[in-house]
Design goal:
Length: 152
């Protein structure tokens, strides 16, 4: 019998945290996708005029048609608005509404509670190691993805 791989441990931890966060967010009429999309759109708006749908899809690492389904739902709820880019009418920018910002603040509280709970099961040294190691793993494999795409 072989030992469980690091990748499998990462996947299982990701799944457990994702599922728990999704369950907690459902109590606030939200989901992990709601949180990620509102957060990325709000961050993009803070730095410019809002992200384009294509840019948001890239930030979220999902396909544009998947993003459109999520955007449709959030727009229907009044949490985001689609606006044509002033300089390129082919581009649609996503702007978080005031209602979206309020929902994001509530979601942020839920995320912070779960983060505190995760930290409570780890030592401060383990938290520090994860904080440094996980972004390096992400960067390594994100570069691998870029290299593969360029090779095609």
């Amino acid at each position: 019998m072989t030992a469980t791989t690091l990748g499998r441990h990462l996947f299982l931890a990701h799944r457990a945290v994702h599922d728990e966060l999704d369950a907690r967010l459902r109590a606030h009429d939200a989901s992990v996708w709601t949180w990620v999309l509102l957060r990325e759109a709000a961050n993009a708006a803070a730095n410019a005029e809002g992200a384009s749908q294509r840019e948001l899809a890239e930030l979220m690492r999902i396909e544009p048609p998947t993003l459109v389904r999520h955007l449709d739902k959030l727009a229907e709820e009044g949490l985001v608005e689609r606006r044509r880019d002033e300089h390129d009418r082919r581009v649609t920018r996503i702007v978080v509404t005031a209602a979206g910002r309020r929902r994001l603040a509530k979601i942020h509280d839920v995320v912070q509670e779960l983060d505190a709970e995760m930290r409570s099961v780890l030592t401060s040294r383990e938290v520090d190691v994860l904080r440094r190691a996980l972004p390096r793993i992400t960067a390594h494999f994100s570069q691998e993805e870029v290299s593969r795409a360029r090779a095609l």
